[in-house]
Design a protein that fits this description.
Blueprint (H helix, E strand, L loop, with lengths): L11 H14 L11 H12 L12 H28 L6 H137 L9 H12 L12 H10 L10 H9 L9 H18 L4 H11 L2
Helix pairs in contact: 1-4, 2-4, 3-4, 4-5
Length: 337
């Protein structure tokens, strides 16, 4: 009967470990979404595409204020100077009055020109300050972005750490559980196979004993019949019933003689071969070697275990052909198995 394997079923511990892992998977953080990327891109675009510094007097409102002021003051100074010159000449205009008036006017215009470098510097400072403001703004936005991303990474790392822990726990629990299942299946299969092998060996062993006893009884009966015939005076023509009886006995020891009642060379050789056997079958050299290799049974030996060990070794020797059936029968009788 073929062995039926039991399908693997996860234990409650494995099922719980799997449920914990699946529950952790549901807690996975969503993909990171930036709250600052749009502003970062806009600020960076302003920094990268900012035009080089240029200064236009006419477009400078402060310069226009200075220009209006100095022009007005220059005209007033020119009128005052020309009026004073006219007073000196009795109220009549003169080229002198015009010249000193123009000089006063141009003096104020020169003052206006002297203000230009200062206005240029102010405009350059404003340009640079705006650039620094953009850089500072980009830095602040970058810091905020880094903080948000760092918090998201912390959540992601915590999730992955817990997931890996639960995954390792599940794998270890399942490997252990499946290992126990596999060991149990292997043990059950081997036990069933051993039981079948033991039953087969026992059947073959019992059959061998039966045949041996049957053959021995038959040979003994032939021996007794021949011996009875010799006592009654039967036989002749070279046939010796005692020799025939001896031939049957030698055959029981393994001689394989033809029972013809003639004390020929084969019979004599068999007699010589088995004469030291004390009337008992004699082991071959392989049988003697096997007997000497068996474990020694002393007073403390568990005889059931010892007999099972001997039986198993006899079975292997029989299957391998290292012992003949005759040797096996002799060993069984000697050991009382």
């Amino acid at each position: 009967m073929a062995y039926t394997y039991k399908p693997y079923e996860e234990s409650e511990a494995v099922k719980q470990a799997k449920a914990n892992l699946e529950a952790q998977a549901a807690k996975k953080p969503t993909e990171y979404t930036s709250n600052w990327q749009t502003q970062l891109n806009e600020t960076l675009n302003q920094i990268q595409n900012r035009k080089p510094f240029t200064y236009d007097l006419n477009a400078d409102a402060l310069y226009q204020q200075y220009k209006d002021m100095y022009t007005t003051q220059g005209k007033m100074a020119m009128m005052d100077t020309m009026g004073q010159a006219a007073a000196l000449t009795g109220g009549y205009g003169s080229s002198y009055g015009q010249n000193v008036g123009q000089q006063a006017y141009h003096g104020y215009l020169q003052e206006l020109n002297n203000v230009v470098p200062e206005l240029y510097g102010l405009a350059l400072d404003q340009y640079n300050q705006k650039g620094n403001d953009l850089l500072n703004m980009y830095g602040l936005l970058s810091d905020q972005e880094a903080q948000d991303y760092g918090r998201w990474q912390d959540l992601q790392s915590a999730y992955e750490s817990e997931r890996n822990y639960l995954a390792n726990l599940y794998n270890a629990e399942r490997d252990y559980d499946y290992g126990r299942y596999a060991d149990a299946q292997k043990y059950a299969y081997q036990a069933e196979r051993d039981a079948a092998a033991d039953a087969q060996w026992k059947a073959e062993f019992d059959e061998a004993i039966r045949q041996y006893n049957q053959n021995y009884a038959f040979d003994q009966q032939q021996y007794n019949d021949a011996k009875s015939a010799s006592y009654s005076g039967g036989g002749g023509g070279g046939y010796d019933p005692e020799v025939a009886a001896e031939q049957m006995y030698l055959n029981s020891l393994g001689a394989n003689l033809e029972v013809d009642g003639i004390d020929g060379p084969l019979t004599k050789a068999a007699r010589e071969k088995y004469k030291n056997g004390g009337g008992e079958p004699k082991l071959s050299s392989a049988g003697e070697s096997f007997m000497s290799s068996l474990p020694y049974a002393h007073a403390g030996t568990d005889m059931n275990v010892w007999k099972k060990t001997v039986d198993e070794r006899l079975e292997r020797a029989k299957n391998s052909g290292s012992l003949s059936d005759e040797d096996i029968m002799i060993i069984i009788k000697k050991l009382g198995l």
